[in-house]
Amino acid sequence: MVGQEQAMPSARFSAISGFWRNHGTALFFMLPALVVTLVLFLAPAIITLGLAFTDTATATGLSRWEWIGWANFEQLLRSSFTSIILRNTVFYVSTTLALNIALGLGLAILSVHVREGPGRFFRALWLLPRITPSVVYALMWVWASASPPFGIINQVLAPFGVEPRAWLSTDPWLIVIMINGFVGASFGMIVFTSAIQSIPEDLFRAARVDGASAWQIVRRITLPLLRWPILFVFVYQAMSLLASYEYILLTTDGGPGLYGTEVWSLWAFHTALNSYYGNLQFGLGAAMATVLVLIGIVVSASLLRLFHFGSLVSEPRVEIS
Amino acid sequence: MTVREPMPSGGRFSVLGLAPYLVLGLVSLPLIILFGWLLYSSFFSRMEGLTPIGGFTLDNWRFLWNPNSVQQLAGRSIWVLTFNTFIFAISVALLVVLISSMAGYALSRLAFPGRRTFLSGVLILHSFPSVTLLIATFIVLRSIGLFDQLLGVILVKAAFEIPFGVWIMKGFFDTVPWELEMAALVDGAGRIRTWWRVMMPLVKPGILALGLLSFVTGWNEFLLPFIFMPSGSQETLSTLVRSILGEGRFVDYGLLTAVGLYYVAPILVLFVLAQDQLMRIYGGGVKG
Known about the structure:
Chain A is an all-alpha fold. Chain A is 74% helix and 0% strand.
């Protein structure tokens, strides 16, 4: 093949022009998306990986940086904060995830099984936290958890004998988990709702004829058939939560105190982009982010393999066994 | 996502009567209270919990006509910030829709080298934690001179939304029967003309849904303007609300809720008008 091309330069030329004739249109359509993803997605991803091995920081000046090998990662391994923040992250992701799934599942099952109108109303209501700007949603919670006499939580819980307090200082995790759990619930709710609605009605009718109670129907029919959607939402939300920090930033900002509610992604954000001390450590922050990406890659690769991701997103899989 | 016909009235558990409604209402109570309070509080000078102190007032809304009433506005008009926010959101929506429908069409209809690589690569990029990209984007924007400018933030935001948009639009193009396009091509129309004249009108629901979603996420965006436009010369409403909230314990909550309500109002109106489209596309997956 190579020999032929050298012998006949015109054939090579026509092969190239043939390529452009065939794929020029495709290139025209793909070009904007390609440029944008290359410059603002792929390049930053590669730069981050490179930065992780440098000491780039505003203190050293952005232009005077040096390769320092694995030093950033070693610093992370040695840091006494690493274990605190890892523990925070695992706690935050697992508890919020549990709340997400439980709420999403409960809302989906209940809202499908009541009348159409109210069901739609409740589903729309639970979408509100997600479509509300994060700063407005955060401000509602900050105000609700304010110290007496202002906070709504104190006022509502007072009749039940709950000691009034400034919730963001005394029980920061509770508020952080509620804020994120309420936002995340809608994702599971929507996926589960359409999955339940695609279960053949005959199954429910047959169960009712056989005298099954409502609980038995949910336990023996709905939940087993939701196995795949639940697993999907579980993995997808775990990944999202691992990377999410916006609401924590807006409410406790990682406090109270040093790293009270600081999670891994917020730690990276604080280190590289919003440091208390004014020195933005891009290198160290990039190393933290790289660790996060590694976890993300492992999770998303297994996600792709496990469920044929694309088809599952468009149509929740229901298996009848 | 296929949504089945509504259940026949009475539902599947008609035996249970009111119990499911009660549970739903109880679980949803925190949300109802929070959003109710936002509405309510902006019309009273002070609130203690859910109890208004003093009478009904429009005083909290003075920021609409008096720029000096809000210290964080620094003498600028709220309308300028609203305009910035709108330009940001609409530009993001237009860019995302245009770029995604071009790429989505090619990925759905044309065979070319690298097609599969692009599709799976974009999926992996979408699952990248955004904090990872922000650090390097900071450096990219500084080096191309778009740091601290609205245009830079628009491009970054659009780029973050495009992987999702490409997949969505590809899905919509996939559902268009090949015969319709074939007819146009046989009649001698080029690919580009066919795409614009024949295919784009056929995927209008997709364009509408994606455009709406991109507009809403653009309007709501906080982190990107916060990080990449620190000087506030082209401030958006999100960073304004944040800077009032960031004042700490001496916050004027009447004013803050009025500004917050003003900021969220267009989104709520859009949501009421286009609930189904938004509900459908949110099921397609967003970061939570």
